[in-house]
Amino acid sequence: MDRNMPEILIYHNEAQQYASHIQELGYKGILRIARTPEEAARHIEGAEVILGWNVPDSLLAAPEGQSVRWIQSTGAGIDNLANSPRVPAPVTLTRIVDQYGRVMAEYVLGYMLFHNKEMKRLLEAQQSRRWDGFRVDTLEGKIIGVAGLGSIGAEIVAKARAFHMQVYGLSRGTDKAPLVDRHFTSGEWTDFVKQLDYLVVALPLTQDTRYTVNQEVLAAMKPGACLINVGRGGLIDEKALIGQLQQRPELTAVLDVFDREPLDRDNPLWELPNVIITPHLSGPSRVPDVSRYFMANLDLYIQGLPLRGVVDRIRGY
Ligand code: NDP
User: CATH for 8-98+285-303, among 2.60.120.1600, 3.40.50.720, 1.20.120.80, 3.40.120.10?
Assistant: First the structure.
């Protein structure tokens, strides 16, 4: 064991794979692994660093968790901890940055094409051996609005431009405004959405963004528009969304993330014909990539240098 290396707790359902990778990449300190909150509570004492996904904030509030100084999320979001008062202020939170944009932009473009080319209708016609000819639409000239112009939103913007779409964007500040044809800030949601053919939500979940896509915003969406949420379920008022989708069958929602995951079997969203549900897979975390990212950050941590992907606890992202 290398005593200069901080003790690490890995909290993940793929904890063993993470452990093998980071050991292969040179970690020689004390490593514990946990897959459930109960296992984590048993192993946390003495751990200085946690590498994990959805790490319960109760771990940090317990006396055994007082040794923790840094938590590295295995994903791009760490909202459950960033927004929690139970996580002591000196604990540094880091997330993965710059690894998801391209793959998530493919997801978004894939479902925009599915919607725009009416692929569901074509598949149904084929299944019933029906020659259902129609004039197929194009994404060219359609208006996409991307809410959240960070590492993920920026890649969605780039791919939308390749399809010659008009690109609107919404972010907290104005420094990302040059990325888009028209820029909006958080006080301008209804103006932002009213002309959009596609609304893509790629925001972090913070105290400011929770349920930001509310009844008023949804009602302002233009007829036939398509909403794609790849950010977090809590960004959208789910009850209001279900109501709008029921009242306005011409709207479509493509949802990768939900307030409660996995989505309850009795959730009305499953039944709605104008909804596409995917199980939080638009931005996959790959164990080798995350392990490399973590080990590079661990190197900085040991040297006392600033880490990559630090979450601003005041902003919440
Ligand atoms: P970034 O931090 O790079 O970007 C966040 C963007 O959101 C910024 O443009 C920021 O504005 C904007 N923003 C933040 N708060 C507000 C607000 N109150 N009003 C308007 N805009 C706001 O994040 P990423 O692009 O890396 O990731 C975004 C989110 O995507 C993650 O937090 C995660 O929840 C989700 N995600 C989902 C995955 C999945 O599998 N579905 C996988 C990976 C990520 P500004 O530019 O002014 O700072």
Answer: 3.40.50.720
